[in-house]
Design brief:
By secondary structure, the chain is mostly helical. It is 97% helix and 0% strand. The longest helix is centred in the middle third of the chain and has 74 residues. The termini are far apart.
Length: 76
């Protein structure tokens, strides 16, 4: 009788391990999806920052050009 109980316990443990492995596999897939989304967000954020920096640089250039033109005009 004892060997039968041991076999049942082992079977139960095997089923539990299988369930745990399935849950881990599911979590891994979900984490991979989250990682893809985070990478896309990072790329978009970097592009956004790049656009902001270009706009700021262009604004500074425009201001300097305007200042230069006004200085030239004042000298005339």
């Amino acid at each position: 009788m004892l060997p039968l109980i041991n076999l049942l316990k082992q079977g139960s443990v095997a089923v539990q391990l299988k369930n745990i492995q399935e849950k881990l596999d599911t979590l891994e897939k979900e984490l991979n999806e989250i990682s893809k989304i985070l990478n896309l967000l990072a790329l978009n954020y970097n592009k956004y920052l790049e656009i902001i920096l270009k706009n700021k640089s262009q604004t500074i250039l425009n201001e300097k050009n305007l200042e230069f033109i006004l200085n030239k005009y004042d000298k005339l």
